[in-house]
């Protein structure tokens, strides 16, 4: 697997998973509405099975996006975030540009995501509400992390 590098001003977007700051991604994940309480081991497994994008300012990671994909027909975008100190500077829009330009994410038949309130961000990259939402089925267990091994691992409030 070849890793991609994208550059803009002082920032880089890199897809080499070895460079990711897992502790930072874990801290940020736990503050989200969708991954609060995710055990670190679960996150590590998720990252290992995904195509991950880190945004870096120098060596420091300031953003993240994860794509679960077969790199041929289908992809699911999740875990998109930018450090609070670095928001409202266009970084997530650039991150999305990098995601949709990635060579392994071309020619997919379906590229999906779920969002509570960021439709406007994704709409500019072609994502739209399905014409027939009734065609979608899922198993959704929002509290699943509570039953996983290091479930005592609650958000710290930092
Ligand atoms: C959402 C998030 C990634 C945006 O990152 P950012 O780097 O501050 O965003 P950008 O500066 O690139 O701008 C995002 C654009 O999408 C728009 N947008 C739409 N919905 C948005 C939302 N829920 N939050 C932030 N921006 C949103 C913004 O208005 C902006 O458009 P504009 O430039 O025309 O005003 C960031 O606020 C974040 O990490 N939030 C917490 C985690 C989260 O909610 N992630 C998305 C889950 S689907």
Compose a concise summary of this entry.
By secondary structure, the chain is of the alpha+beta class. The protein is built from 4 helices and 6 strands; from the N terminus they run E-E-H-H-E-E-E-H-E-H.
What would you note in describing this structure?
- Helix content is 22%, strand content 24%.
- The protein has helices at residues 22-30, 40-48, 91-101, 119-123; strands spanning 5-8, 11-14, 51-57, 60-69, 74-82, 110-113.
- The longest helix has 11 residues, at 91-101.
- The radius of gyration is 16 Å and the shape is globular.
- Residues 151-158 have low confidence and may be disordered.
- The structure holds coenzyme A.
- Coenzyme A (COA) binds at residues 32, 80-82, 87-93, 115, 117-118, 120-121.
Q: Helices and strands: which structural class?
A: alpha+beta
The low-confidence runs, each spanning 5 or more residues with pLDDT under 50, are 151-158
Tell me the span between the first and last alpha carbons.
Answer: 36 Å
Rounded to the nearest angstrom, the radius of gyration is 16 Å
Number of helices: 4
Oligomer: single chain
Shape: globular
- The tally of strands reads 6
